[in-house]
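Schema walk-through. Below, the input block comes first and the output block second. Nothing else is stored per chain. Lengths vary across the set, and this one has 412 residues.
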Amino acid sequence: MALNYIWIIFFIAAFIIGLIRLIFFGDTDIFRLMAEGTFDSAKSSVMDIALPLVGIMSLWLGIMRIGEKAGAINFLSRIVGPFFRRLFPDVPENHPAVGQMVLNFSANLLGLDNAATPLGLKAMKGLQELNEDKDTASNAQIMFLVLHASGLTILPIAIIAQRAIYHSKDPTDIFIPCIVATYAATLAGLIVVSIKQKINLFDRVVMAWLGGITGFIVLLIWYFTEYLNRSQISAFSGVFSNLIYLGIPVLFILGGIRKKINVFDAFIDGAKEGFEVSIKIIPYLVGLLVAVSLFRTCGALTYLSEGFKWFFGHFNIDTRFTDVLPIAFVRPLSGSGARALMLDNLKTFGPDSFIGHMSSVLYGTADTTFYIVALYFGVVNIKKTRYTVPAMLIADVAGITTAILVSYLFFG
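--- output ---
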């Protein structure tokens, strides 16, 4: 129901703001711009998102099928089984969905967006097979989606590349702030959902895994800062991510050869699902992205930003962060919109300015919450999302707040 209410609010609020701008400010172009925005968003939902996704989905669903037949998915399930049994108690031990979720989280961690989406959709379909109420999100699906959307990453490749394009003297200096902010978002999402689902986070196994992950991140940060210079960090990030991106298919293929399966037939069998999945999500994408376009085009996000600047101005504190808040507002609604705002700030203020740094960190922290909800629940026809959206937004707020604080700490 949360998504239903938000969708309604977007349409009604945009229409009311448009009327106010027309009647009181004489803005005769506002409704034309809003209408054109809906056409562009509807077209973009199909032509720029759903159809290009067919190829990516086909590639990675085919690779996933090889991995399943080669036994790689079950192998991953056994490794993380003790930890995931605590977080996903409704998922049977060694179920393929466990390995699929692990691959999705791993792809996110390494900044492999093209791989993360198909792997995540496959995991969502696996969890749907266990879901007794097919119209309603299960506890496992909610936990998975909140953790996925929190976007924990250790290699923010795309942002580093954009900063390099704008001739930053140090494109990788947002590396540590991005890790810290995304980790805060992930931890906040995990805590919120665990409280709601009565999951014991103080279980020894859970604490051991969380402690291990935290220790790994701290060790990685320490190693990068102590032993690698900035150019080496950038080179390592690019090489390692692409190596993993291509290494996963090769490992699956080698596993298939070892199992003596017809690897290419397995790939084709899995790839056939790509078109079906991509077509199924079109109505969800069109409905949500059109509403987001209206909300953005009417000027609501600008008014929110100005409102925050006015509010915080009364507390005699530094309000520079309010210039970057539009990215935080747009990011859960539109990845391309937030990216455009970030790039505009990099161009206007410079990539090495305070605004440029904070824009980069903020963009790398939050995720496209509503797009993810529409995409992942749309593919399995979930209509009742329960508390998924509020939990995801809480994780976003935690990540955004942390991103602002660490930006002041590192670059302020």
